[in-house]
Every structure is written in C-alpha cells, then in structure tokens.
Amino acid sequence: VYRIAVFASGEGSNFQALAEAADAGKLGKAEIALLVCDKPSAPVVGRAGRLGIPAFLFQPKDYESREAYERVIVEQLEAHGVDLVVLAGYMRLLTPVIVEKFSRRLINIHPSLLPAFPGKDAIRQALAYGVKVSGVTVHFVDEGMDTGPIIAQAAIPIASGETPESFAQAVHAVERELYPEVVSWFAQGRVKLEGRQVTIGE
Ligand code: GAR
C-alpha cells in the first residue's frame, strides 16, 4: 500500500473527499494512514474519528519552536510509514524539518490560480481584486508561501454577484474532484518533477 498523511487545520472537506476516494478504490492501492492536525478542536478531527483514521493532534504553543513540533510530526510520519504528505487546509508554513525530509513527496491545494493570490484568504483576495476567473492549484510544497512547482490547476469563472461564500462553495466542489485525482497520480507513480516542470506520465 501507498500510505498518505493529510495535514489539516479546519473543516476537513478535502480530507473527507480523499478518505472517501480511497475507500471507493479511486486512489488505487493508496490509503489515508494518518491525519495531522494543529487544532484539536477542529471539525476535521471528528471526521477522522468517524472514518476510523488515526490522528496526531498537537498544539503549537506546547512546543518551543516550529522545528520542535515538526520533528515530532516527522517521527509520526515515519512510524506510520508515510509515502506522501498532503496538505489540505493546513494553515501553517512548514520548515526544512518536514520540507527536506519529504522533498518531492509533499503537496498542497490552494484556492486560487497561483502565482496569483498566495497566502491566506485567497478567495477574498481574488474577489476584492475583481478578477473574472480564479480557481484551484495543486502544487509541490517548498519553504515559501505557495511557491512550489505547479502540478495541476482548474479554472473557475467568477460570476457577477458572486460572494466569498458562493465562490468558496464552487472552489470546494472543484477541490473535491481535483485533489483525489492528483493523489491517484502520485499513488500510480506518474508524477515527474524536473526543475519547476511537472509532467504526468502514462
Ligand atoms: C481549502 O479550500 C483549501 O484550498 C484552502 O483551505 C480550504 C480548506 O478546506 N487552503 C488554503 O487556503 C491554503 N492557503 P477544508 O478544510 O474543508 O478542506
């Protein structure tokens, strides 16, 4: 089996979509082996419980540095034999402790067409700017903020009268399809990275 850890801080709709895709056999031989969550009270924790997926929960304030809790996370990832780390609404920057250890095996989903609107609140940023098309990006994670090589993007038109709430729904609907598909490419060993160029093999 190909073992996946999902990092999430909040609602967990992407976590749920990935877990359901795995259960439905849509990720091939992959399984969601672990949830990592920095907010023990987040809704995603209840989802993991209902799905029977082990969770590692921590509070950053209990550690003296980001590196300190990331070293504990790496121990957890190694203990669970994790092959791929999937960030899904994990609202923290990673340090080299995780980024270097999981180089080429660490991806994120972001609710804009990067490099437009990196960082927090991408949906509000896009609507405030007045763009007519935005979307979703899945990318490799490096130490920057949403700067790693792009794996896949999906565009979503912004209708007139769109609100952050209505557009967030459209984004989530696209994410639910796109993220499991990209993860299945990894499970099948089809993703190649050379410099910033990502290609998906047969
Ligand atoms: C998703 O829309 C994801 O793209 C976004 O957080 C949401 C999490 O939703 N991520 C970021 O903004 C990262 N900068 P979820 O908890 O329901 O999966």
TrEMBL record:
* Record-stated family: Belongs to the GART family.
Q: Which NCBIfam families does the annotation name?
A: PurN (TIGR00639)
Formyl transferase N-terminal domain span:
3-183
EC number annotated for this UniProt entry: 2.1.2.2
Question: What species is this protein from?
Answer: Paenibacillus cookii
User: Which gene holds the coding sequence for this protein?
Assistant: purN
Q: Which reactions are catalysed by this chain? A: N(1)-(5-phospho-beta-D-ribosyl)glycinamide + (6R)-10-formyltetrahydrofolate = N(2)-formyl-N(1)-(5-phospho-beta-D-ribosyl)glycinamide + (6S)-5,6,7,8-tetrahydrofolate + H(+)
The positions flagged as active site in the entry are 110
This protein is called Phosphoribosylglycinamide formyltransferase
Question: What's in the keyword line of the UniProt record?
Answer: Purine biosynthesis, Transferase
User: Where N(1)-(5-phospho-beta-D-ribosyl)glycinamide is bound, by residue?
Assistant: 12-14
| Pathways involved | Purine metabolism; IMP biosynthesis via de novo pathway; N(2)-formyl-N(1)-(5-phospho-D-ribosyl)glycinamide from N(1)-(5-phospho-D-ribosyl)glycinamide (10-formyl THF route): step 1/1
User: Where does this protein hold (6R)-10-formyltetrahydrofolate?
Assistant: 66, 91-94, 108
Q: What does this protein do?
A: Catalyzes the transfer of a formyl group from 10-formyltetrahydrofolate to 5-phospho-ribosyl-glycinamide (GAR), producing 5-phospho-ribosyl-N-formylglycinamide (FGAR) and tetrahydrofolate.
